[in-house]
Amino acid sequence: MTSRYRAMPIEETALQELRVRDDAGRDCVPHTDGEGGAPLRCCLRTSAAGERIALVSYAPLRRWAARTGADPGAYDEQGPVFIHAGDCGGPAGGGGYPFARAGGRRTARRYDARGHILGGRVLDLGEDPDGEIERALADAFAEPEVALVHVRAAEFGCFQFEVHRP
After folding, report:
1. Could you give the C-alpha distances from 98 to 18, 26, 91, 129, 162, in angstroms and in order?
2. What does the pLDDT average to over 105-131?
3. Where are the beta strands (DSSP E) in the chain?
4. What's the rounded Cα separation, in Å, for the pair 130 and 136?
5. Confidence label for 42 from pLDDT (cuts 50, 70 and 90)
6. How far apart are CA 66 and CA 31, in angstroms?
7. Terminal C-alpha separation, the chain
8. Cα–Cα distance list, 117 to 37, 75, 111, 132, 166 (Å)
9. What is the pTM of this model?
10. pLDDT tens readout for residues 50-90
């Protein structure tokens, strides 16, 4: 499937900072992934057994707001994400949306240019997970005030990726 929207990984500057201290102020503690399968937000793929990764706290809206001058106020939140412990070169490309094939439920949260939430949509990723995400993004960006969308795992609330207005 060719996607109209581009899933954005955590940007490189943020990754460099998170590999030292995360957004909760904790030191990064890398470990060797013994099993594989962790959803990596640096390259938007799952980890392989034996890779060095870290679980860090990440505040995507706060970092976006710092770049754009927005003020999310109470909508600022942080949560756990997996990243490679060192530089991985970012996403390799490919079709579809990251982590969609894993199934489950997602939320697509809509934010305006101030960083305030405008609402969201719960997605059940069944037989057409990429299509479900694509439709949710199209609906979100049909609203002119939507500046970006965060896709999160519904079960744990973990940030998956963000999409900016095309």
Report:
1. 21, 27, 10, 10, 11
2. 94
3. 31-32, 39-40, 45-46, 52-58, 79-84, 104-111, 117-125, 148-153, 159-164
4. 10
5. very high
6. 30
7. 18
8. 30, 7, 4, 21, 19
9. 0.92
10. 999 999 999 999 999 999 999 999 999 999 999 999 999 99
